[in-house]
């Protein structure tokens, strides 16, 4: 199992999620949501960027992905996106 490639791709997907969280941040800013909501989304984006950049800083030597790795990447992506996507709600109280 190519764990380095799995880590690299999951990290890239977390960076994509950080980019997608910019949309609710902009909408919250336009509709003048309380600062706590803006801060909770911003903190989540920061956490995602740190985790994603740390994980993707080391590029794997072997770029092959087999079916087993693909299934694991998809499953981990669903779990991690759900976890990190819920963090703004946890932080905002």
UniProtKB/TrEMBL annotation:
The transmembrane segments are: 12-31, 37-58, 70-91
UniProt keywords (A-Z) are: Membrane, Transmembrane, Transmembrane helix
Q: Which domain of life is it from?
A: Bacteria
Protein known as? Conserved domain protein
């Amino acid at each position: 199992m190519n764990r380095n490639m799995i880590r690299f791709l999951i990290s890239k997907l977390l960076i994509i999620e950080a980019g997608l969280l910019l949309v609710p941040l902009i909408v919250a800013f336009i509709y003048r949501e309380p600062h706590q909501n803006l801060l909770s989304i911003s903190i989540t984006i920061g956490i995602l960027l740190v985790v994603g950049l740390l994980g993707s800083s080391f590029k794997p030597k072997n770029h092959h992905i087999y079916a087993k790795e693909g299934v694991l990447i998809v499953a981990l992506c669903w779990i991690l996106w759900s976890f990190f996507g819920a963090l703004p709600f946890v932080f905002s109280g």
